[in-house]
Structure formats: structure tokens, C-alpha cells
Amino acid sequence: MDDPVQVQLLKQIGEADHVEGLRSLRDQAHEHMEALLPDRPVEQFNEQLNEVHDALIRRSIHLAEAEMARMGKGSPPVPYAYLLFGSGGRKEQTLSSDQDSGIVYEDPASDSPEVQQYFMELCELVVSNLQKTGYPLCEGNVLSSNPEWCLSLSAWSGKLEHWFNEPAWESVRYLLIVADARCVYGDEALLAELKDSYFTDMLETPVILKRMLENTMRHKVLLGFFGQLLKEQYGEDTGSLDIKYGAYIPMVNAIRLLSIQVGIRETATLDRIKRLEEASRLTAQEARSYEQAFRLFLRLRLMTTEQYSDGLYANNGKLSSRKLTREMTDELKSSLRLGKKLQRAVFKQTMGRLT
Amino acid sequence: MFKKTMLALGIFTLLFPVAAFAEDPSGATLDMGLNSVWVMLSFILVLLMQGGFILLETGSTRMKNAGHVAGKTIFTTGLAALIYWAFGYGIAFGGDSGLNALFGWGDFFFNPAIVADVAAGDTYPSTVFFLFQLAFAAVSLSIAWGGFAERAKLSSYIVFTLFFIAIIYPVVAHWIWGGGWLAEDGAQDFAGSTVVHLTGALAAFAATVLLKPRIGKFNKDGSANEILGHNQVFTALSVLLLWVGWFGFNAGSTVAVGEGFFGYVAFNTMLGAGAGGVAALLISWAVTGKADITTMLNGTLAGLVAITASCAFVDPWAAVVIGLVAGVLVFYSVKFFEKIKVDDPIYALSVHGAAGIWGTLANGIFATQALADQVGVGTGGLIDTGSWKQLWVQFESVVVVGAFVLAASFLVLGVMKMIMGFRVTEEQEIIGLDLSEHGAYGYPEQMKKAGQHIQG
Question: Where is the Ammonium transporter AmtB-like domain positioned along the sequence (chain B) (predicted)?
């Protein structure tokens, strides 16, 4: 990275010794990134931004560990991996993303309640540190401080197996969330083992794909019958485009579903597209055009209305259509058409595999 | 056996001599009887449309106003009956005023003959005709209430009923149906797209403009918020009730059984309604990406409103086209009124106004000469005859009626607003009219719970 400000910021984040310090560094990073947004290529911008987020999260975890030690709770009793799901997992966080996290820890030799207790307390601290740093909680309570998402490796395997065998709506949603898991701190090997059992279960229950398909195709692309953009009709955001759920998420979902079927472990959508091309699931031409469309969605998503409330960075994923130039509107329309085409292709491929 | 039968018949004849010796009723009497049963049935159907309006208006508005919205419809229908009897009927259908082109005069405090005088050429008793016409006036009034919804004072309903039923509606009815000047010109409005629907809608427009939008309907930047009605099932059921009632409204407007022409009118009515709903659902789906139920319901009503003027004048294919256009029109009309920041809580302006205008004009385009001759009003339209004459007459009636109703309604409501006030206070509007105007909630359990929540 050739951005000296960025290098300096990452260094300072890595050395911060209290949460308030992290907070002010995040605010600085925000100012810096906002200034960069108009000029920098979106992929590079995204990478740089996610480096900052990762650094902030890592340091928050580190500070929480130190706090635990200071309180006399000792150091982590077994190795663990702190997992990010959602946009964090996909390395696609915006300037304002919420926390979606979990923990997997090595099976303790003995005294597992005590180990569980340690990690629960640790996660409480991590989540609260991140909140103080401006990351809102996940509304669906997918948080490491939730005992459902803070488990030992074997407990995780059991849970996955349960979800695979009982593909109710919730379970399918959780399975799709786990597909985006990425280890941001700790022992990567633990996540690798978790994913091993994920993909083994996957092969054993191919019918899950149909349920995943039904679950992910719920979000419709923002393109109307006449090829027009579908805008918000009412409320404060009248005339805005729901970029998050009408463009970005449908594409993320489609690419994820294709990737899961071939056991691709990358989580970032652009990386997944490359792997899909290598696995000959997409032609080179398709891959390029999907990449281009996705870059546009990422860019527009970064332009969506930022809301800053109660010290938290939030965002409703909606973009005022006034912010779009005519060229961008045309580009968005053709990208959305690609998104629709991709959805159809995924539907055909997935259903084709099952019959 | 034979003897016994003869004996029984003999006794029967002694007891009921009429059965044996009365003359058969004449064909004219039978005809009159059939007509009156049909008009009476139609009156009942049209009166039942008030049930539709109750559900339409309550379903499309919020819980806190439900009792008020529902109750006031019954009350004003009763009030309308008295005023129409005393005054309105005389203006619409009373004898020659000397200014017969503009309004009728006579038959005030209407005191009808108790039976029809077949010999004098009556085809039905004037009593059923009065009832039928009264039900139309009450429908027009209930349409006007759409513009009052959720914020007008109860007293303003009473005062406006007086002026609307005594003067505004009867004058328009006289112009087109009572032998007034538009009738002389051959204006075609079979069952009242203009007379009933456009008149009601324009009164609603004047009211909603003078009242200004409900609290929370529009944001500072001019964007609109969706204030959803509290019960979509009510709204859907209301459309069914109105739809059924509409067969009295349109087919009943033949006011004769004759050779069964009313069946043709009913047939076209059905096609128009279906086409309106289908078109509205499809257009909302195509344009917004969501198949909107409210829009579909509005479309069905718009199809009915539009076909009301033309149901007796057009071919079935034209009825479908008229309905389809009405369905699309109502969708864009709702958007238009939102854009110009006119709050139309139950979509009266779009459903009854825009579709009413379209239905009236549609006659000028689609009416056929054969059907115009059958009904005996005006001539064929542009497509059948190639002549613009009828379209011009239709246009004229829309413009003139529109101007009159708007001016009269703005005058009455404007003066009312100055003298006695038109809108409830902000506090009353927020608490809801059930409590502020009547002292009791329409949904006591739910609303009390909500109230406690606010206080706690």
C-alpha cells in the first residue's frame, strides 16, 4: 500500500492501548477515506477500507484479551478464531457496517463450562469495545456475545449438522451466513476445520441447495418490467434506490450460491467470481462482466446515505437517484440486467443439479 | 268425486268472488309492476352501496377514526333522505321553474301519489323513482366524504350535507337527467359517471384542498408518506359490496324491464369492472415492481366508475377498453395527486374524479349509433360515426359540471371554514376523531392499550 496516511493509521491502530483511542483513529480514518472515495478505483478503495476495519477489530479483540487478563481472568484457555460474517466476512464493509461475528474455539480437554464462560466474557468485552468504536450491533443478534454463535469446534459441527438436517427457513439463513465466515483474529486452522465439516455436510445433503436458492432469490433486482429503475415510492427516501437489497445483495447471494456448490472457500464476491472462472463455472467473458457490474454496485453502495446517530456509523443502503449522473444510471441499468441474468443462470444451474 | 270437487269450487267461489270474476290485469299494469319491482330492487342495491363506502373509508383509514368514519356515513345518509325529500328532489326533478334549463322547481316536501296511474302513462310509481334517485344522491355525498376523512369536524359534515343534497347535486342531476340544458344537448351519462361520481369527487377535492393534508402525510422536502389503512380486508370487501350494488346503479338506471336491456347494461358493467382491476394490478406491478392490492382495488372501482356513463352506449369490447384505460389512469392519477401534495385519503379524486371524467368522455369515442337510438340520448361517438359532435358534448358536460361543482363546493366549504371552522385541532386529530368527536373509540380495547403506551 503506497498511501502514507493509511500506513500511519494502521500503525497507530495496532498500537492503540484504549478504546477511546481506537474511536478517534476510526474517525480520522473515515475522514481520510471519504476524501479518497471520488478518485480511487473502487476495488482498491474497498481493500484499503477493509484493512482499516480489520485492524480496528483486531485491536479491539486484543484490548479485550488484555482487559480479561487485568481482571484476573487469565489468557484464552484454548486457541480460538474470531469470525466475521456478513459484509465483514466478505471483506466488503462500507464506512458504516454493523457487527456480525462469532467465535470457534478448540475443544477443551476438560472443564468446558469454564472455557465457555471465559469466551462469553471475552466476547462481551469485544462487542462492547466495537460498539464504542462505532460499530452498531447486528439486529439479528448474530454476535459473538450470543452463546449460539460462541461455540467449540465440536459444538459447531453438531450445530451445522443440525441445520443441514433440518432446513427450516432460519437454519438455511444461518448456513448462508456461515458460508461467508472469515477469521479476522486468532487461529485460522479452526475455521478451516469448521468449513471442512460444512462442505462435507453439504455434499451429503444436496437438497439444501434448493432451500438456499429459495432463500436467496427473495431479493429482487431493482429493475422493472419496462427496464426502468424501481425507486422508493414513499417516505423520507422517496426517489431513492435501494442499492443494498436491490443490487448488491442479489449479486452477492447469487455468486455465493454458485461458489458453495463447487466448494469455493473464498468469501469476497470478486474473489469468488475468479474462482468460479477457474472452475469453469463461468466463462472468462461472464466473469469480467459480472466483476464490472459488482464493482459498480460496491461503488454505489459506498455512496449511499450515511447516517450518524448515537455515535454509531449507520447506513440504510439507499442512494438518492439525484446523486447519479446519466452515464451512471445507464451503467447501473445494464449492470442490473446482468444481475438478473445471473440470477436466472443460478436458478437454472442449481435446479439442474438437483434433477 | 266429481260432485265433491264441484261443491268445493262452488263454496270457494262464494267465499272469494274476486278470484273467479276479476278481470286479468292489463299488459301495461303488469309492465308497470315489473318495472317498479326492478327499480325498488335497484334502490335497495344502491342503498347497500353505503355499506361499501363504510368499509372502504374505514378500511383505508386508521383505527383511531374507525367509529367516526363508519357512523357518520349512516347518519349523513339519513340526513340526506330528509333534505332530498324536502328540497333536493324538487330542484332535480320538480316541475318547470321557468328557468328549466338550469334547475327544476316544485315537488318540495315531496308528497307522491300512493300508486302509479297507468292510464296517465306512468311506467312506475313516483315513490320508487324518488327512492332510487335519493340513493344516487347519497352515493355522491359519500364520495365527497373521501376528501373530509380523518380531520374534518363532525359539524362540517352536517352543514355540507345540507348544501350538497339540497342544491349542488340536484342542479347537476337536473342538467343531465332532469331535462336541463345538457340533456337538451344530448349529453350521455347513463348512470352518472359525471352526475354522481365526478360531482362527489370534485366536492371531495374542494374539501381536501381547504382542509390541507393530514398530519404526517407529506415530509418537509415534499415527499409523501404512505399512511396505510388499518384493514385491507375491509377495503377489499367494500369493493365487492360496491361492485354488487353497482348492478342496481347501472342496470337499474334503465328504470324499466322492457325487453331486458338492463341485462346488456349489467353485462358491460361486469366487463368494465374486471378490466379496471386487471389493468391496475398489472400497471402497478410493471412500474413499481410490486403488485399493489390497494391499486388493484382502486382499479376495479375505477373500471366501474368509468363504465357507469357508457354501459348502455357501447359494445362489449369497448367496455373492456374503457375499463382497462380506467385501471391505468387511476394508478397514475394517485401518483399525480401525491406529487401536487393533495392528500386524498381514500383515493376519491382518482377513483371517482379521474375515472368519472374518462368514462364520460369515453362515450364520445365509443358510443354506437344503434345503442344511442336504443337509449334515446345523443348520437354515436367518434369511432362509429366519425363525428366529433358527441365527444364535444361530453367534453362540454364535464367542463361545465366540473366548474359548477368546484365553484359551489369551494364557496360553501370556504364560507363554512371562515365562520365555524372546518378542521379539528391538531390534538384532536392526533387523538383520533372517535374520541374527540364522539367520546368513544371504535376499537376500545386496542386503542386504550395504545393510549396507555403513549402515556407510559
Answer: 37-443
* A233 reaches B (C-beta below 8 A): yes
Please give the ipTM for the structure prediction.
0.80
**Quick one: DSSP state of residue A97?**
-
Phi-psi region of B77 (alpha: psi -120 to 50; beta: other; left: phi over 0): alpha
Cβ-based contacts of A220 with chain B (< 8 Å): 289
Nearest CA in chain B to A238: B223
pLDDT for B20 beyond 70? no
Q: For domain B34-446, give the CATH superfamily.
A: Ammonium transporter AmtB like domains (1.10.3430.10)
| B225 chain-A contacts, CB cut-off 8 A | 234-235
What the block records as the C-alpha cell of B176 is 343531465
DSSP alpha helix (H) spans, B352-456: 355-366, 369-375, 382-385, 389-419, 426-431, 433, 444-455
Q: Compute the distance between CA of residue B326 and CA of residue B310 in angstroms, rounded to an integer.
A: 13
Q: In this complex, do A220 and B289 lie within 8 Å of one another by their Cβ atoms?
A: yes
Whether the full predicted model's pTM is greater than 0.95, yes or no, is: no
Nearest CA in chain A to B219: A236
For residue B287, what is the nearest residue in chain A, using CA coordinates? A224
pLDDT band at B23 (very low <50, low <70, confident <90, very high): confident
- How high is the pLDDT of residue B455? 41
Nearest to B287 among A220, A224, A238 (CB): A224
Rounded (10°) angle between helices B126-144 and B169-177 = 130
Is the CB of residue A38 less than 8 Å away from at least one CB of chain B?
Answer: no
Domain ranges of chain B: 34-446
B158 alpha carbon, distance to own chain's centre: 19
Stretches in chain A below the pLDDT threshold 70: 1-2, 305, 354-355
Contact B279, B146 (CB under 8 A): no
